[in-house]
Amino acid sequence: MEDHKLPWQYRDACADILIPLNVCRRALQYRPWRCVDLRHAYESCQFDRYNKRVEAHQKAKLEKKLGKSLSD
Predict the structure, then answer these.
(1) How many beta carbons lie within 10 A of that of residue 14, not counting itself?
(2) Span 1-22, pLDDT tens digits
(3) From CA 31, how far away is CA 2, in angstroms rounded?
(4) In angstroms, rounded to a whole number, what is the distance separating the alpha carbons of residues 31 and 11?
(5) Counting runs of H as helices and runs of E as strands, what totals does the chain give?
(6) Residues in contact with 17: Cβ distance below 8 Å, sequence separation at least 6, in sequence order
(7) What's this model's pTM, rounded to 2 decimal places?
(8) Is the dihedral of CA 16, 17, 22, 28 positive or negative?
(9) DSSP letter assigned to residue 70
(10) What is the CA radius of gyration of the chain?
């Protein structure tokens, strides 16, 4: 990640998709109709991670309300 000069804010679970996406973008001069598959994969990864955070927050909120653990 440091070799690709990826800022620390983007070093998450989706960074393995972001690095090739940025390489593709630079190689093709940031043309919006190129690198579509990588862009979709990265945005999908970000969306999935967001949904997991929301689900975890809702679960914690429900556990707090009920006063017990809802472990799987």
Answers:
(1) 19
(2) 656 677 767 778 889 999 999 9
(3) 25
(4) 24
(5) 2, 0
(6) 38, 41, 42, 45
(7) 0.79
(8) positive
(9) -
(10) 17
